[in-house]
Amino acid sequence: MRRADWSGVHELVARLAAAPEAANVFGAHGHEWLLEPPLTAAELAAVEAQLRVELPGEYRSFLVEVGRGGAGPGYGLFSLRRVDGRWRWEGDGAQLTCLETLAEPFPHVEAFNPFDELPAQPYVKDYDSLEEFSAADDAWWKLYNSDPPVAGLLYLAHGGCSSWETLVVSGPARGQMWADDTGADGGLQPLHDDEGQPLGFARWYLRWLDGAAAQLSSGLHP
Question: What sections of the sequence does the record tag as coiled-coil (predicted)?
Fold first, then answer.
């Protein structure tokens, strides 16, 4: 199980929050540079028992060493909370995570777009009557608006403009961060670093933290 070195993260987030231009970092008005309290080991065990899956090591170490949500990429990390006796993530887009299927494998390892599998959009000229066209058009839009496959995919942050960043929990790409741009017809694709290597949770989060520090002051480092 992979772990990450989260030492200094709380201190750096606090220093960035105190910077004069902190509010100018993209998404800061959403998370306000606040980190929610970490989970206890018992709470993490309860989460994983409910989900019937062990979360990837870098993220689970973040949950118990740093926080259960808050300051992070985009408008901040969705917060993991216990509501009515059940654990769930909360935030704009957190509902896209299907808690019941997180243990099922996310089957993809390369970028894909579920809309590519749609049939051609109906045109009125191809139908004998307006009623036939309307029925076909309604059926097409129902397919278009259907949810993309989300088994094994944990939505962690809203990146703006109908884009979300997710963590693969189960399947061959387990531990990788992926972007979901289906809200803008862009499909889903793995996130990579500047060398083209897949990003795991730790490098994804720390790269954001480094970028925010560089924006506010080149002298701040975790």
Answer: none
Architecture, CATH, for domain 9-216: 3-Layer(aba) Sandwich (3.40)
How confident is the model over 103-144, as pLDDT tens digits? 999 999 999 887 666 667 678 888 888 888 888 767 655 655
Of residues 166, 152, 150, 189, the one with CA closest to residue 91: 166
Q: Delimit the domains of the chain by residue range.
A: 9-216
Question: How many whole angstroms separate alpha carbon 150 and alpha carbon 65?
Answer: 27
- What is the spatial distance between Cα 193 and Cα 218, in angstroms, rounded to a whole number? 20
> CA torsion 46→50→54→55, rounded to 10°?
-90
User: What is the C-alpha to C-alpha distance for residues 113 and 117, in angstroms, rounded to an integer?
Assistant: 8
pTM of the model: 0.84
Token pair of 213, please? 């520090």
